[in-house]
Amino acid sequence: MTNDEFSARIEAAYREALRGADAITAEAKRVLAEAEAERDAARRARQTALAEGAAEALADGRARWLRALVERAVRAGRAAGEIEAWLGADAALIAEVTESLAPRPAAAPAATTHASDWQLETTQSGRGGEVRFRSPTASFELWWEFAGGDALAIVELPSAAQWTARTGLPAEQRQAVADFLGRELVARQAPGGRYEIGDDHLTLYSSRSRAS
User: Fold this and answer.
1) How far apart are CA 136 and CA 119, in angstroms?
2) Assessment of whether the complete model's pTM goes beyond 0.85
């Protein structure tokens, strides 16, 4: 191979290498351009999302502020037409707020239980025991013990001040429950006898005892 042929081959190889380098450079530029385009698109999408989020937050804040103003106007007794004109509030919002602020009817009071719903049990241990009262709304236990003299037995009865805390029943039912206890206990333990209601106890008397 002559020197000229060798030089020609070297030059051809060099040119081929340059073309390959140019192709690599072009591909690298294309990839870079795509990456930059994706980055710009992502940046625009993020900016759009931020803007939309800010707009949504602003709208939500305005809605809460408007509702607060409508509530204030409704409480002040303003007519729906006035509120709509002054605040530019939607009629549906005004109606909703008005309904939410409307007074609600008081709940019906719980039905008062009657003696027909009440139950009484007694237990004995030695010279005393327990009286157990049961009703649909309350239950409680009281102590009792045998008495002396004319009295047959003494039964605990919570005072008026302690009644509700001890029994769970309203104070106005104390007299009725005390009478129920007295009648039932006399009928069971001292037929023909009687009872007396004290401040903090019941006293049962046999049929031989006279009323004071």
Assistant:
1) 10
2) no
